[in-house]
Structures are given as C-alpha cells and as structure tokens.
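To the wet lab folks,

You asked to see what we're planning to order before we commit. Fair enough. Below is the target structure as tokens, and below that is the sequence we designed to fit it. If anything looks off to you, flag it before the synthesis order goes out.
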C-alpha cells in the first residue's frame, strides 16, 4: 500500500464522525432538498418541506421564505429573525436536511475512476476522492476545484500534501453540486533495486529519498541503506550521486538505485 494511500485511509477514519457533522452544517440547500424545521415550544410550527425550483419554502405564520443558496445554520438564523419580528419572543429554531437532492460532480485527472459521480447529501473532498477509487501513483501535490459562482467561475486549490500527510483538515473542503475536481499529475521518479515495489512514483516539491523509499514499500532485508545512489539527468548532463543521505531532496526524473548490501 502506498504511503499517500495509507495516509488517506487513516485520515478518513479520524474525520468520519467530525466530517459528517461539519459537512451537514456547511451544506448549501437548494431546489429538491427536503428540510425539517422545528421551533422550541411551538409544535404547531414544525414543518417538513421541499425547497421549490425558486429556492422558496412555505412556513407557517411566515408564508413564503427564500432559503435557496443558504447553509443550514443560515436557514435557521433567517427563520429565527423573521419569527422574532412580531411573531414570537426569543424563538429557538432548529433546521436539518431530511432528504438531499441528487448532485453531480466531475472528477478528472489522477484518480483510479475519473468521470461523473452522482452524489446524495453533503460530501467532503476526501470522501469524493474515496468514491473515485483514490489517487493513482502519478498524482501530484495539488488538486483544483472549479466552481460556478453567480455566473462566474472560481478555482479553489487544495494542497494534497498538507491535507493527506500533515492532516490539515482545512483543505478538506465541502464539494458542491456542479463542481469539477481535477487531480494534477506530479513529477515522477523511478526507484529500482532493493525495495519491495520497484517502479515509478510521484516526486514533487519536498520529496526526499526516504519518502520515495516509503512509497515503494520500504527497503528489503538485503538493502544497503547507506549506499543509495541517484542517477540525475539535467539537460545533456548526467550525474551519479553516490551514498546519498535519506533526507536528500529529489528532482523530477531522478532514478533512485538501492543496491544490495554484501555485509
């Protein structure tokens, strides 16, 4: 199992409960969603209603209320303010989504199952990544999310290194209906010799010899850990770096050779 894939699994386990609550709160409601509204000590105002195509609901006492495009807490706050304006004293409103509309997201690039994914309910970037089969071995250090916003397009950049390897959950953004997610392809390095899974692995900025060894499954029992060599080609120049420390930074297209120890 690759190092980055292992980190994703661990991070998903850690965030499972927390992420579910977070995404539910950040979910943007829209046409087709069904929401439950309760008002403390006012059972007659309890409402389960579908948001219509114009983003409107019908609420007792208030009539039509526009809620489309609001996050769940914002819906509760808006209804609270409207009820407090001449109807109730200090109303306490709770809102939750009872049924989510189907939403479509496109994920492209370095995932195992790219394409159109239909989703129901709130979902985070990591959860979407899981549904797409996870990252390929050629995934780079960044992902981009292209999002329509009132007729214009916003691009959000996700730092995969910070998210997956450092556990920065601020990068695990909610995914919205209509988003296009693209996982970049990273620079590649080739590992050969006494590692468990020789082959080609991503080696973007900040990748060390130790990290690329981890991606390739680690040293075998025969490996000479102090004898690692790097074959580096820059233009027409070819260098052979011998006995490199494990914290040596790699460059794209480096070939890492792990020789057998004879002692």
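Sequence we intend to order:
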């Amino acid at each position: 199992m690759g190092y980055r894939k292992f980190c994703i699994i661990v991070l998903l386990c850690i965030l499972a409960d927390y992420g579910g609550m977070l995404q539910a709160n950040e979910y943007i409601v829209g046409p087709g969603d069904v929401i439950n509204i309760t008002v403390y000590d006012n059972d007659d105002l309890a409402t389960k209603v579908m948001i219509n195509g114009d983003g409107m609901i019908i609420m007792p006492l208030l009539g039509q209320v526009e809620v489309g495009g609001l996050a769940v807490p914002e819906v509760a706050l808006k209804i609270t303010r409207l009820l407090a304006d001449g109807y109730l004293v200090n109303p306490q409103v709770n809102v939750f989504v009872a049924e989510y509309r189907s939403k479509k997201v496109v994920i492209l690039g370095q995932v195992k199952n790219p394409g159109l994914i239909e989703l129901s309910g709130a979902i985070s970037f990591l959860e979407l990544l899981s549904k797409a089969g996870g990252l390929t071995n050629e995934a780079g250090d960044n992902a981009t999310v292209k999002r329509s916003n009132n007729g214009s397009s916003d691009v959000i950049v996700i730092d995969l290194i910070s998210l997956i390897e450092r556990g920065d959950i601020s990068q695990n953004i909610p995914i919205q209906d209509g988003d296009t997610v693209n996982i970049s392809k990273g620079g590649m390095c080739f590992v050969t010799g006494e590692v468990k899974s020789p082959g080609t692995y991503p080696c973007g900025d900040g990748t060390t010899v130790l990290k690329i060894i981890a991606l390739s499954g680690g040293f075998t029992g025969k490996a000479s850990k102090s004898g690692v060599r790097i074959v580096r080609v820059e233009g027409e120049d070819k260098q052979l770096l011998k006995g490199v420390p494990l914290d040596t930074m790699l460059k794209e297209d480096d070939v890492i050779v792990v020789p057998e120890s004879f002692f």
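Structural context that might help your review: The CA atoms of residues 31 and 52 lie 5 Å apart. The longest helix spans residues 3-26.

Thanks,
Computational group
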